Structure formats: C-alpha cells, structure tokens
Amino acid sequence: MNMTSGTLRAGVVALMTVATVPAMAQGHAHVHGQAQLEVVLDGAELQLTLTSPLDSIVGFEHKPRTAAQRQAAERALRTLVDPPQLFLVPAAAGCTLQDQAIEAPVLQPEAANTKPHDHAGEHADLEATWRFRCTAPDRLDRLPLKLFDRFATMKRLEVRVAGPAGQGRQLLRRGAPAEVQFRR
Questions:
Q1: Cα torsion through 113, 32, 11, 95, rounded to 10
Q2: What are the residue ranges spanned by the domains of the chain?
C-alpha cells in the first residue's frame, strides 16, 4: 500500500474522533510501557480493542513537536489502520475486517482539530477497535500478535479474552511469545 502523507492524514482523520478516551474511565490504569487488549469472539464476530497510553505506542503523549515525532505518529497511525501488521488472524477462520475506529486526538493532524486542545500535563491515551466477521470462527484457536514488534516502547500487554468457552486473562511480555490462546 503506497500512501502519500496527505492521503494518510485524510484516511486517519476519517477514523479518529476529537474526544479523548481516558483509560481510567474504562477500568484500565495508565501505565507507560503497558497496554490492554480485549479480544471478544461472539458467534461469527471477532472484536479486538487496544487501549494504551500513547507513550506505549509512540514514546510520547503530546502533539508531535519534532519531525521525528511527526514521523513516529504517522508510522503508528499507518500501522493501526492496517490490522495485519498487528494481528495474524489465521486464514482458516475466514475473518474479514468489517470496520475499525482509532481514537488518538493528540496524534490528529492540526487541520482536523475542530477546536484546539492543550494537552500539557495530561496523560494521553489511544483506543483502537477492529471488528471482523469470520466464516469459520470455530477454526480460530489462537491469534498471534505483532504489537511488540510494531511498538518499541510497549513492554507488557494484558489480554482479556471472552469467547465460546468463557473468559480468561493473559499477561504477555516483550521478548516472550505473543499469542492469544482461545480456550475450547
């Protein structure tokens, strides 16, 4: 996929909202280097929701100020809008992306802001959701993750899984295998 910077911004702006999503309001602690992934398999629908401090994604929590920070933000947003860079959904499950939403106003290009926000001194978070429809959800027994490969400052990932066999929790760490296991 070859995108110009303007095309990327236009696509990302379409996916982003201007409201922040405080992680604490959703029951997640804001801890740098950590993130949470909720994986829900409900019938033929697979939904993945990543909640993270922006620091765990791009290494900072403010509007990009330097060329390097702008590049890091654009790289992260390009990755987030391309789920195969993050999740290796087994082909046997026949899952296709239905929709996605990314909320990270601090990374939003200036032109897309409807009103200025001063995030100085605030914690900034990211929430991204991807929803897939699967033709053979019973073939989805594992989900390899590439989050640690794509986001260098992410050190730990708490994964909560809800599926046909119940609920579970996994704690994944950088350097160890990063794969969600579905209980059957």
A1: -140
A2: 5-17+33-181
